[in-house]
Design a protein that fits this description.
Elements (H helix, E strand, L loop, with lengths): L3 E3 L6 H11 L9 E5 L4 E5 L15 H9 L6 H6 L8 E4 L6 H8 L3 E6 L2 H15 L5 H7 E5 L2 H7 L2 E6 L14 H10 L6 H10 E10 L12 E4 L3 E7 L6
Parallel strand pairs: 1-2, 4-5, 4-7, 5-6, 7-8
Antiparallel strand pairs: 2-3, 8-10, 9-10
Helix pairs in contact: 5-6, 7-9
Length: 250
């Protein structure tokens, strides 16, 4: 991966070395983006626009924690789309994990979630966030039980694995003038890029899912692979297209 990992803390130098070797962040310098290893977290930084701020994964605090506590629980649209119900523990494969936020919501609602992410930058940020979350006194125990990460192509992973539900949120090119895309996601999209092969995911996802496939899309995006879903759950700026194979048992 042609991106530099910068570390200015001597005490963190051994960890930085391991991260560079594990993920291939061996470039001495970067032109547009770089990773920074700080005492608090691993972060992605856009060098040509410092106002965008740092992008990192934090499951224990901030907006993600607020959503866990006050986001509406099983009444949330994502819970309805996935089919979460009392007394049933669903195994979910999130084949396009990104920054892991939807996966975390599902795990916080009781699902066992396997996150799959092909971008080494995104996977490294996710791993860093998971390691810190696993040690958190409030969420660490159930995080270790319910969330795990695999660095792989979602397409390849789904060919060899099955789950009750497959969740897809492929990166879709955002509208240039859209105010809907937060600064943080613009930085993330800049390094990860759009999932131009996302249409290929739907068929393997349908084969891998026991009950249903859920696809998150911007409200202006076409159906994945032009395949009409069984139903769509619309939100303010996005929607969940749900492809039902059979009813979820009790």
């Amino acid at each position: 991966m042609d991106i530099a990992l910068i570390c200015n803390e001597n005490i963190l130098a051994p960890k930085a070395k391991k991260l560079r070797e594990k993920w291939g962040f061996l470039s001495p310098r970067s032109e547009h983006f770089q990773l920074r290893l700080l005492p608090e977290y691993l972060a992605l930084e856009q060098l040509d626009d410092k106002q965008q701020g740092l992008v990192f994964v934090d499951f224990a605090s901030g907006a993600v924690a607020h959503r866990r506590k006050f986001g509406g629980g099983k009444g949330q649209s994502i819970a309805k789309a996935v089919g979460i119900k009392s007394g049933v523990t669903l195994h979910v494969i999130d084949a396009t994990a990104g920054l892991g936020r939807d996966a975390f919501v599902l795990a916080s609602l009781g699902c066992r979630v396997d996150m799959v992410e092909r971008s080494p930058v995104a996977a490294a940020l996710l791993e860093d966030g998971l390691e810190r979350a696993y040690l958190d006194a409030e969420i660490g125990d159930w995080m270790q039980q319910r969330m795990r990460l695999t660095h792989a192509s979602g397409y390849d992973y789904l060919k060899d694995h099955q789950a009750d539900v497959v969740y897809l949120d492929p990166m879709f090119p955002h509208k240039k003038k859209s105010a809907l895309v937060k600064k943080e996601m613009r930085v993330f999209q800049g390094i990860v890029g759009a999932d131009l092969d996302a249409d290929n995911l739907l068929e393997v996802a349908l084969n891998a899912a026991k009950y249903r496939v859920v696809v998150k899309r911007p409200d202006y995006a076409p159906f994945l692979n032009d395949k009409k879903p069984s139903m769509s759950i619309k939100m303010k700026n996005n929607r969940f297209d749900v492809y039902v194979k059979k009813a979820i048992g009790s």
